TrEMBL record:
Descriptive protein name: Conserved oligomeric Golgi complex subunit 4 N-terminal domain-containing protein
UniProt cross-references to InterPro entries, sorted A to Z: COG4, COG4_N
Highest classification ranks of the organism: Eukaryota, Fungi, Fungi incertae sedis, Mucoromycota, Mucoromycotina
Taxonomy, superkingdom: Eukaryota
Domain Conserved oligomeric Golgi complex subunit 4 N-terminal: 62-166
Pfam families registered for this protein in UniProt: COG4_N
Organism name: Rhizopus microsporus var. microsporus
Amino acid sequence: MPTATLSNQSLMQTNILDKEFDSLINIDEIRESLRQLDEEENRIDAFLDDILKQESILDTSLNSLKAIKPQLDTLKVKAATFTDTVSQTAHLAEVISDKVRQLDKEQTRAKLAIKYVEDVQELKFCISSLNEAMQKKEYDRAALLLQRASKIDSSILKGSLAEFTVVSHYFYLQVFAYILSSLHQSTQIIQKKH
């Protein structure tokens, strides 16, 4: 886009307008001043023509901008809607993530509860089978059952669920706990010696 500027020479000659024309008395000086004024007028006219040309270019540019303004307004509305949608989606993702974490915790608790119940059932089986093996004097089987039961977490023996579930064999449960405790102590002593 061309820019309208006055040349340095033209700017210097604008000083001619500052001249005191009343003091001119010589015809040659008057003619020279008139010539310079005429040149300055031509330069100013050319400068103004350039400005007018630029005005039409600016008008064209402004009209182009006015033409795309509705599209820009539509884009602005769509961008705001998109931003709002992204914000809502991010919030929803955060809520879902929290729910997934809660479900993970619940699943972990459920697995622990299932493991606990399975261990109690295993203990119940071992005690009833141990009782049966002792009555039939199957000491090898009883030893295997004791070994199998020794793998059960000792906290199960002290738990109320085991006591409640294995009520009919509560005495055996106490004996079994004592035997297991003794086995654990013996195992630790043997391991320390080696």
